[in-house]
Amino acid sequence: MLLLRGERGELLHALSEQRELLLITVRGITDAQAAQRTTASDLTLGGRHAGSCCT
Asked: How far apart are CA 18 and CA 5, in angstroms?
């Protein structure tokens, strides 16, 4: 693993931690469950906007 110093390194580390937490959150759910909207937002746990035409 490449260690970066300074603000960029801190940001990349924080993003890596958040990605790990998201993967824990979605562990074991189906694609259909990940595609469901759970809030008023169009964003889903699968990381797509509901009704998105792109894959």
From this structure: 19
